[in-house]
Amino acid sequence: MTMGTHGLGIAKEFNPTKKLLKTKKTMINSKAKFESQQKMLETIDKAFSQNLKLRDKLITKSDFENHAKIISTDLLLSELIKKRARLTQGGYNYIPVFMWDWNPHFPISKNLLPKIIR
């Protein structure tokens, strides 16, 4: 797909996957404000992915029987996103894509959710 350059006479090719790869690199390479916090960031990412898998298993089993467990897991995921944003040098701008894609399964008060969900 080619796009014009608004009167410059040179046509540029638009490649959406190239832009996506660039943003993924930025998200992956996000660093903590201080070097001593980098290990904490990695621990938060690991805990987030483990709890997300647990929540998905609970949802697939029976979401109404595990209602309380799913809500408590969603609250934990929300807190992990907030903690990661506080530790990351760029704040909410540099959290990973899989954290941006997360949404609570059941409605939760907006005060308990991170900024990206509100």
Polypeptide structure, described:
This protein has a domain at 52-118. It has helices spanning 16-28, 38-62, 67-87, 97-100; strands at residues 2-3, 12-13. The model is unreliable at 16-27 (pLDDT under 50). The protein is mostly helical. The longest helix has 25 residues, at 38-62. It has a two-stranded antiparallel sheet with strand order 1-2. Helix 2 (38-62) runs antiparallel to helix 3 (67-87). The radius of gyration is 19 Å and the shape is elongated.
Brief descriptors of the model:
2 strands, elongated, 118 residues, 4 helices, two-stranded antiparallel sheet, mainly alpha
Indicate the topology.
Elements: E1 2-3, E2 12-13, H1 16-28, H2 38-62, H3 67-87, H4 97-100
Antiparallel strand pairs: 1-2
Helix pairs in contact: 2-3
| Spatial extent as radius of gyration | 19 Å
Instruction: Tell me the structural class.
Output: mainly alpha
Oligomer: single chain
> So how many helices?
4
Terminal residue distance: 35 Å
User: H/E order of the elements?
Assistant: EEHHHH
Mean pLDDT score: 79
Dominant shape? elongated
Largest sheet: spatial strand order: 1-2
List low-confidence stretches: 16-27
